[in-house]
UniProtKB/TrEMBL annotation:
<dbReference type="GO" id="GO:0042853">
    <property type="term" value="P:L-alanine catabolic process"/>
</dbReference>
<feature type="binding site">
    <location>
        <position position="198"/>
    </location>
    <ligand>
        <name>NAD(+)</name>
    </ligand>
</feature>
<feature type="binding site">
    <location>
        <position position="15"/>
    </location>
    <ligand>
        <name>substrate</name>
    </ligand>
</feature>
<dbReference type="InterPro" id="IPR007886">
    <property type="entry name" value="AlaDH/PNT_N"/>
</dbReference>
<feature type="binding site">
    <location>
        <begin position="239"/>
        <end position="240"/>
    </location>
    <ligand>
        <name>NAD(+)</name>
    </ligand>
</feature>
<feature type="binding site">
    <location>
        <begin position="267"/>
        <end position="270"/>
    </location>
    <ligand>
        <name>NAD(+)</name>
    </ligand>
</feature>
<feature type="binding site">
    <location>
        <position position="220"/>
    </location>
    <ligand>
        <name>NAD(+)</name>
    </ligand>
</feature>
<feature type="binding site">
    <location>
        <position position="75"/>
    </location>
    <ligand>
        <name>substrate</name>
    </ligand>
</feature>
<keyword id="KW-0560">Oxidoreductase</keyword>
<feature type="domain" description="Alanine dehydrogenase/pyridine nucleotide transhydrogenase NAD(H)-binding">
    <location>
        <begin position="149"/>
        <end position="297"/>
    </location>
</feature>
<dbReference type="GO" id="GO:0000286">
    <property type="term" value="F:alanine dehydrogenase activity"/>
</dbReference>
<dbReference type="Pfam" id="PF01262">
    <property type="entry name" value="AlaDh_PNT_C"/>
</dbReference>
<feature type="active site" description="Proton donor/acceptor">
    <location>
        <position position="270"/>
    </location>
</feature>
<dbReference type="GO" id="GO:0000166">
    <property type="term" value="F:nucleotide binding"/>
</dbReference>
<protein>
    <recommendedName>
        <fullName>Alanine dehydrogenase</fullName>
        <ecNumber>1.4.1.1</ecNumber>
    </recommendedName>
</protein>
<dbReference type="Pfam" id="PF05222">
    <property type="entry name" value="AlaDh_PNT_N"/>
</dbReference>
<feature type="binding site">
    <location>
        <position position="134"/>
    </location>
    <ligand>
        <name>NAD(+)</name>
    </ligand>
</feature>
Length: 361
């Protein structure tokens, strides 16, 4: 199969879909791999490294799309890429369709096969291609939140862990999945006063056992969230409904009850955001303020640490990419329930239930 990895062109997206190690594995299986020149540089992988393992370098994104049967990338195609996608071409990447009507229509019109990292699902309902980036984003949400709590960055000027004689910051984490757990670990490690809210009592029991003792757990409800945000210095939105739009847990009305200079980090922004006042931002312009509350809603948080993120992501995606290349997408999805659940749009038809419901009801 002819496999292509273009350079990501989304704002400050520095990751790359295939590492030299991944190219090497695919070439050894007999496949041709096209890499756009410079695609891996921001992740620490030079063109020379790709050439050494058998990649064919192409100078432009247009040539990569034109030459390839399968595209392996990181983020969803953006508007300049729409016209490059061919009928029957397989795209293997993150899509997050439910929150992006324009992308969904473009992919339907393209006639391509869209297999989304975020909905590949194991029998235990875990999401193996979302987990590594959720781990990075969860940890980074605290790193970024702590930064924007600093007064010069618009925050209230509180140190996350406090110091002897001064109370630490209060951190509220909404969601006890991978993102929320990693965020709670990081915040607790810095010495913050952490509260983690989730709707699953069994999950909260587990987290109470494994998380540090400065993490308290709460059963989540609208009332509980409304009360907790009043005193929170940092709120992390970490809720995921697989393939669907995220629910709005913090409403616009709640903002007026929050402290001025508090910070909200919406890690669910790829799926529409779990704060009613969220809108996507970029690493170039990451924050905005409403009612005195700082919003950080960067849609590709892991793109800021591309070396770590690329290695973590491709460790997970490569085995699936090899399956797709060796068997073709139809046979691979017949053989693998995990991959079959990754199919979102196939040749003009929405096939993933949550995406279909989002647009067709």
């Amino acid at each position: 199969m002819k496999i292509g990895t273009p350079k990501e062109i989304k704002n400050n997206e520095n990751r790359v879909g295939l590492t030299p190690a991944g190219v090497s594995a695919l070439v050894k299986q007999g496949h041709i791999v096209y890499i756009q020149e410079g695609a891996g540089v921001n992740s620490g992988f030079s063109d020379e490294l790709y050439l050494k393992v058998g990649a064919t370098l192409l100078p432009s994104i247009e040539e990569v799309y034109a030459a390839s049967d399968m595209i392996v990338k990181v983020k969803e195609p953006i508007e300049p890429e729409y016209r490059l996608i061919k009928k029957d071409q397989l795209l293997f990447t993150y899509f997050h369709f439910a929150s992006n009507a324009g992308l969904t229509k473009a992919m339907i019109d393209s006639g391509a096969v869209c297999l989304a990292y975020e909905t590949v699902e194991k029998a235990d309902r875990s999401l193996p291609l979302l987990i590594p980036m959720s781990e990075v984003a969860g940890r980074m949400s605290i790193q970024e939140g702590a930064k924007y709590l600093e007064r010069p960055n618009g925050g209230k000027g509180i140190l996350l862990g406090g110091v002897p004689g001064v109370k630490p910051a209060k951190v509220l984490v909404l969601g006890g999945g991978v993102v929320g757990t990693q965020a709670a670990w990081m915040a607790a490690g810095l010495g913050a006063d952490v509260t983690l809210a989730d709707i699953s009592l069994p999950r909260l029991r587990y987290l109470s056992d494994v998380l540090p003792k400065n993490v308290k757990t709460l059963v989540s409800s609208e009332y509980v969230i409304a009360e907790e945000v009043k005193t929170a210095d940092l709120v992390i939105g970490a809720v995921l409904v697989t393939g669907a739009k995220a629910p709005h847990l913090v409403t616009a009305d709640m903002l007026s009850t929050m402290q001025k200079g508090a910070v909200m980090v919406d890690v669910a922004i790829d799926q529409g955001g779990c704060f009613e006042t969220s809108r996507p931002t970029t690493h170039n312009d990451p924050i905005y303020t409403i009612d005195g509350v700082v919003h950080y809603c960067v849609a590709n948080i892991p793109g800021a640490v591309p070396y770590t993120s690329t290695l973590a992501l491709t460790n997970a995606t490569l085995p699936y990419a090899i399956q797709l290349a060796n068997l073709g997408w139809e046979k691979a999805c017949e053989a693998s329930e995990e991959l079959r659940k990754g199919l979102n749009i196939v040749k003009g038809e929405i096939v993933y239930p949550a995406v279909r419901e989002a647009f067709l009801g």
